[in-house]
Amino acid sequence: MPVPAERAEAEAIVQEFKPLFESETIEKIGQNLKYDAIVLKNYGVELGGPYWDTMLAHYLWEPDLRHNMNFLAETYLQYAPVKIEELIGKKGVNQGNMRDVPLEQIKEYAAEDADITIQLRDFLAPKLNDNQLEKLFREVETPLVKVLADVEYAGVRINPHFLMEYSGVLAEKIVALEEKVLKQAGFTFNIASPKQVGEALFDQMKIPYPGKKMKSGQYSTDEEILSELALTHPICADILAHRGLMKLKSTYVDALPTMINPKTGRVHSQFNQTIAATGRLSSQNPNLQNIPIRTIEGREVRKAFIPRDADHVLLSADYSQIELRLIAEISGDEAMLDAFQKGLDIHTATAAGVYGVPLDQVTSDQRRAAKTVNFSIIYGAGATNLSNQLGIKRAEAKELIENYFKQYSGLKKYMTDIVEFARTNGYVETLLGRRRKLRDIDSRNGMMRSMAERIAINTPIQGTAADLIKVAMINIREALIAGNFQSKMILQVHDELVFDVQKDELERLKPIIFDKMTTAIPNLKVPILVEMGVGENWLEAH
Fold first, then answer.
1. Is residue 277 pLDDT above 80, yes or no?
2. What is the C-alpha radius of gyration for the chain, rounded to an integer number of angstroms?
3. What is the rounded distance in angstroms from the CA atom of residue 191 to the CA atom of residue 183?
4. Cβ contacts of residue 510 below 8 Å, gap of 6+?
């Protein structure tokens, strides 16, 4: 159906189809339906009815593979569809426009698209059934499409003036760090060049190089190597800090203002459902998941995210230590469950057990070490990794891990059992039945095998955390619609949801959000905790 460029004529055509698109009884089958839903939203049409998204179905069945239509058609239907580049040219400044392509060609391309999509649906539907994924598809991933379409469409307001000023502040800090590094070195080199950094540190300054040289023969100066050296060589810590600020400035501080949509005045990040194999959402343009929150400079970027107007505030709702709570739930470790059920600080409780001291005598250093162990063990960190993270001897780190598993023996048993389950079944799954296949669990290559073992241990936890927040988002959207709220959900980052809340709705909305987030997966043994904050910007709310 050709749609003219003229807005009024285009809207007239859309109106013809509006009853079909908005019908709640007609199923909509598509590949990446969120895209279509947002395009139609721009024309005042809500894409209704049950959805059946081939991209999502394949993602659930094969989370580690690619999910674009050409790949699916070639892999499962042995058919190569016409690529859009054949009609409008390759991506880039010279790429043409679909409006310039003869109708005859577009007709074939569009009809083929629809035909392939229905064939893929017919191929994928039995796969969901055979792998017990139908419920997750129908009740979690599919309803989430409507949630994400709303979130993307709403967007978030950004304060460009704040960012412009902050860019200047960062520029000064970057120059100061550069001067500090060169002063320590005693000679001039380009800090932004990894090659020159390697030569400066290891050839000229004679710092012992702890890694292997790359194929090109040059030294690696990646984060892992510099972090290891930073413990004994302050210049390496300063180079890392310099890199961090450069990246922060270019990726966020200078880039965010250019992403503001001129029509809406807001930034509309895209939330991807089919990228992370664990089930986690990811985002791009901008990637909100990567805004650093461990550094003061990184946190400052959140000040640029502001409410839509003076009648709104930002509300942040964040799951507290959700992965650790889910480790306790899934492993059934009694000591860990007990600590959470009593409302103890888990890192203090861990430190008390590991160091054999009473709760009230745990030092801040002991708590910090316990916190690192709590978050590292489940990602498969060994003694070497832990000794680097904590800046302690390897023997100390080994003892720390041994004491940790004495305290949490149920966790050790879970880790052994889940790897065994993966070996027997070829997959692991979350509490809601999300599966991840592990093709390398029996690999002869030790490195690939241990990687698969780490994934086996971690996926049920990360994946259940992903399922939890997805269900919460679906239930909150339904509550917002049912309560006729004007407030909007605008961001999802890790374990946090951010809302642009109309001030007069705030007190009515808070308990609803809290309830939907804490009860998303019912009947858990471990208490789920949600922390909320309100503010005039994202940092203040968080």
1. yes
2. 26
3. 12
4. 315, 532
Is pLDDT above 80 for 381? no
Residues paired with residue 436 on neighbouring β-strands, in sequence order: 428
Phi, psi of 315 (to 5 degrees): -120, 125
Helix (H, G, I), strand (E, B) or coil at 140: helix
From the centroid of its chain, how far is CA 406? 33
Per-residue DSSP letters for 283-350? EESS-GGGS--SSHHHHHGGGGEE-SSTTEEEEEEEESSHHHHHHHHHH--HHHHHHHHTT--HHHHH
Residue 213: CB atoms within 10 Å? 12
pLDDT in tens, 341-370: 999 999 999 999 999 999 999 999 999 999
Backbone phi and psi for residue 224, each to the nearest 5 degrees, phi listed first? -60, -45
* Closest-CA residue to 51 (of 271, 269, 273): 273
The answer on pLDDT for 230 being more than 90 is: no
Sort strands 282-284 and 51-53 into parallel, antiparallel or unpaired. unpaired
pLDDT above 90 for 187? yes
What pLDDT shows up at residue 407? 93
- Is the Cα dihedral 31, 37, 42, 48 positive or negative? positive
SS3 202: helix
Comparing CA positions, the residue from 469, 495, 449 lying closest to residue 141 is 469
Listed by start position, the domains of the chain span 7-131, 158-267, 282-322+466-541, 324-461
Q: Coil, strand or helix: which one is 84? A: helix
Q: At the top level of CATH, which class does the domain 158-267 belong to?
A: mainly alpha
Position with higher pLDDT, 400 vs 120: 120
Domain 282-322+466-541 has CATH 3.50.50.60: no
Q: Do domains 7-131 and 282-322+466-541 have the same CATH topology?
A: no
pTM: 0.93
Rounded to the nearest integer, the mean pLDDT of the chain is: 94
Residue 380 pLDDT greater than 80, yes or no: no
Q: What are phi and psi of 305, to 5 degrees?
A: -90, 115
**Cα angle, residue 391 at apex, residues 389 and 397 outer, rounded to 5°:** 75
Q: Among residues of the chain, what percentage have pLDDT more than 90?
A: 82
SS3 116: helix
Specify the CATH superfamily of domain 324-461: 5' to 3' exonuclease, C-terminal subdomain (1.10.150.20)
- What fold characterizes domain 7-131? Nucleotidyltransferase; domain 5 (3.30.420)
Query: Distance between CA 542 and CA 534 in Å, rounded?
Result: 7
Sign of the torsion formed by the C-alpha atoms of 55, 57, 60 and 64: negative
